[in-house]
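re: ur question from the group chat, yeah i did fold both. here u go
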Amino acid sequence: MNKKGIIVALILMSIGFASIATVLTINGTIKYGYDTKDFNVIFSEAILDGDVKSEELIEQTNKKSITFTTKELSKKGDRSILEYQVMNNSKQYDAEVAIECERLTSDGSESEEEITSEYTTITPNPKELTVKAQESRKGTITVELKKVSTEILEEKFKCSLTVNPSEREEEPEEYIADTSCESVAAPNLGTDNKLIPVTINNSGEITKVNATGENWYDYCNKQWANAVILKDGETAPEENQKIEMDKIESMFVWIPKYKYRLWNVDVENPLYNAHSIEIIFDKTNTTNIDGVSCETPGVSGDTGECNNGEYMTHPAFTSFGVDGFWVGKFETGYKGASNADAAKHDTGESTDIVVKPDEYSWRNINVKNIYEVSKNYKSALNSHMMKNTEWGAVAYLSHSIFGINKEVAINNNSAYKTGYAALLTTDQSKMPGESGDGSEYNTLWNTENGVNASTTGNITGVYDMSGGAWEYMAAYIENNLGSSGFTSESNEIDTLQKYFDVYKSGSNDNTSYTNMILGDATGEMGPFDNYKDGDNNMRYHNRWYADNSIFAATSDPWFARGGHFDRGILAGQFYFNRRTGVAGGGDGFRLVLAPAK
């Protein structure tokens, strides 16, 4: 089946130029559907001279024209470059896309003149794109000033993208389209009877339930499974009986095994920005099937045979060979602490752990001690310090149809108390200290506003993934233990590798995003920009809500996630930064349980 000449996007460029200024205007029809059940190509992003100019594409998908202004082209050789992306949402049609440009007269009608004039040249690259089903490709259109004019002149061009769809000759070996919850892995409560299945109502009331009951969880309705561990000496109540918070030691949320659709395998040529991550729950591991799925690499800087548009089992589940894991519902607190300073302990025991709302986060503890207290907490449930890939698994699930599907609200409690939230309607573009930065608001987890800090937007999700304390991850650059407390002489960390995400050496600056592990929510959150914030400091930001994005480096080989209570727009579930591994007054951690099948 072939259909030629379908106009997918129309781009009009008006170039007024002189020794003073040049203006470039782009108008684009950004979406065209042909037999939309089967074939749909989208003009889905525009970047002009390095700046994203298509923010409105996400909210205004029916908008037919978008107008931009370029930098000045005032010298011979000056260029303006439009980067665009074509996305093929089809599952059974590939597309050949051709890009052709023509000169227009001043009134906008077609001109018989050559595309290159005395003053300008326009070059599409490439002139043809092959965009396979479920794939995205990028191209550029470059306008270059060949000659400077002392008069303001104007030239117009029309660039058309035409598509020739062709039906795939063979059906893929595996067709992945199940967005239901039929394959959600049942929560694993372990064998020691420590984890008690519970439901939590909107006011925070906790009730024990039957683990095989129908009302425990419903991921298709953003109701994630919760469980608690009681304090020593407390007896579990009967089914459907309430559990008082003062009897609970720790609270956890189940993250079931899933595969997700890749969108940014090639970090150096990123595709598009924040979007709903496509997730399918599945207890099996994906394999290499061209155009459909790929085997999980799980290795720093290695993308294996994975391509954009394919599905990949998230590495958080493959490293332990589990069908899911339990993540601490809140940052780890220090039991009995009566204020923020009382929760700062570089040494401690696993019995000091508490994971509940309205507790002071345990901080000022180095990575080795975090690892040890976490590992000793509930060894029968394979308790451990959270890994970078596990953080990524929670963050991706949060930004899907099964989660809040946007950035979570920041915990801006300056006393490092868990489970708080800034007012959602606060202008989060404000930097800390600016009027309206949200610092005057902080509400608890079980309030109408408090649930906006949850990964589900309701009380069943995970909290403190934005703000609160920085959270150390069990993730570092190989052969570089920094000030973590681990020593290379003893080789002690070498025997613990499945409990750590290890990254390639040579990560020496903020731009080492290619050393990501697919699924860890670092490099895939690009492209990355370095610009000044409201406090006049230069920082690297990703395109997912401008969260701060600084990769681990030789000087600071350990990862920290989530941001700090005073970070404002910089914090978020897609925030990452680097640390030496040393105990820090603002650095905490989170627990994970991964009981064996």
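okk and heres the other one u asked abt
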Amino acid sequence: MFQIGSIVIYKNSCAIVTDVSSDKFVIQFQSNNAKKNSFDSQKIREKDAFLLHRSGAKNLNEILECSENNAIKEKFITALKESHELLTSDDETKNEKICLKDLAELSVGQFNANESYAFYKAVLESNFFALTYSEETNTDCTIFFIPRDLDEIKKIKEKEVEKEKEVLVRQEFIKRLKQKKLQLPEDAKYMQEVEALVLGKTDKSKVLKEAGFSEKIEKAHKLLIDTGIWSYTKNPYPVRFDLSTQSATETLSSPPEDEERLEVDHIAYAIDNQFSNDPDDAIAFDGTYLWIHIADPASTVTPDSKIDIAARNRGATLYIPEGVARMLAEDCLADYALGLSEPAKKSKALSFRIKLSENGTIEDINIFKTKVHVILLSYSEADEKKDSPELLPLFQIASRNIEKRKNAGAVFIEMPEVNIKVDNEKNVTITENQRTESSIVVRESMLLAGEAAARFAFKNELPFPYVSQDAPDLPKDVPNGLAGQYKLRRSMRSRSVSITPSSHMGLGLGMYSQVTSPLRRYSDLVAHQQLRAFIDGRTPLDKDAMLERIAAGDAASSNVTKADRASSLHWTLVYLTQNPEWTGDAICVELRGKQATFIIPSLAHETVIATNGKISLNDSVTVRAANINIPELKVDFIIQ
């Protein structure tokens, strides 16, 4: 039983019992701030501490000072070596445990209260004895030691020497890090936790703390560049947003079974930019109906299958300048994408057959599982053939749909877009996307498919993901040119997804759903699963299950969007770094007193620049880049 003045070990530190109650004890111990004569008190249970010395100690500071006295420590360690030799030389005692009090009396002739903690620490430091405890409380001895054999002592000392070496090596590394002069590749292993911080895998770094650097993610990113661990071209954003930069690998365990499909007798055209290699839509007009053929991954990607869950976790295909990480496996493209197979082999599709009135409204909609002959065309190729019998009706349908949507209050916004490419040497090229007539045709066709799918689902009471958007707060005075487009964009409201159809005012549609990118967007894939279940006469997902899956997919795709935007800005700044003599036109789109917002079309970049006040909306100025900060995704532009 403890008593007032007893010296105890509490959480591996020395403490004195200052008060005794029926079931608890009050102890005094050195506070965490480690200042001399600075102590804290706490109530503990007897089982929470081990008795070191029962006598009435009064001054904890004297006990602690004694434990830090090197002369006393060395005296004890020398004596302990002799005691160890004595105890291990006798077969009867070499494996027997001995209490701390008896060991002290054997080694130095007495067990002094003020020196008890110093002796306890010396035993631990000497490595001659292994620590153990007794559960008995009504005794002067609760701390025991067992003599170690010489081989064990040797191994422990070798480990300690190795640890001391590691400490010295780390100290030298920290010195080099402070000077930002690392020895590579040797020092790279110590910077792995800094890399983990910048990649969003942890929010702390012991290395940065030891070296006195900020743990702010952007500062750590800059340090990785400054020390040569990373190139300035390194793009951390996909990993930071917890995204894979590799395409999905989940595939079918066996080839899909053939199913009955309608064989359409017309040729459909998959029109896309020249960089696309995963066409998932094609269009045609047969004289009566507009056909919109969409890739049909839902034919084999069933709800809650391994492929489906993997796609849901990704949310969308990640398109970044250095490559593509697909939502569905690369191996799937040959089966699902349109027009990639040999001409003699038709593509499988989920096809929307739409009958339109003279003014472009949808009169009838039906959906089929089909096989269709698809020809790939680039936008420029389609523009060249716009007056051909096959394509001219598609251009006319698009024009009527635009007029119909305008009359319904649709808002048309055209902002500069660019294509950013990165080669294997990390060289960046940026080219402006030229708006083509055929790209507008494809856009309007996809909107018609989304409107038709929504109407089909509503008519057939099919649980479906409807996309809506409240009316924008349109400004009364919209300037001409890019400034007007910028102002319109800022007036738009965010979209929402619901099981109840509602108007999409931005598009000028009474109801709408996204169904045209099931290879790239998980929400589109779910919509296809619902449509296929209805067509096949199977029970579709109920409303709650469908929305739960879409919500999970949207949460993941939100990270895809963030990573895409951050990656594009990252590579834009890399491009400006690689081209220090770059200059470009910037167009004023908003006035802010002595500052103005500019759009740089050749970079599709928005920036704020201080002006002399002599600038008007849509004025064009020549700018150059300055103060490029890749880790913070910042750059200043200066008017030439």
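fwiw on the second one: DSSP finds 17 helices and 24 strands in the chain. The two ends are 85 Å apart (CA to CA). idk if thats what u expected
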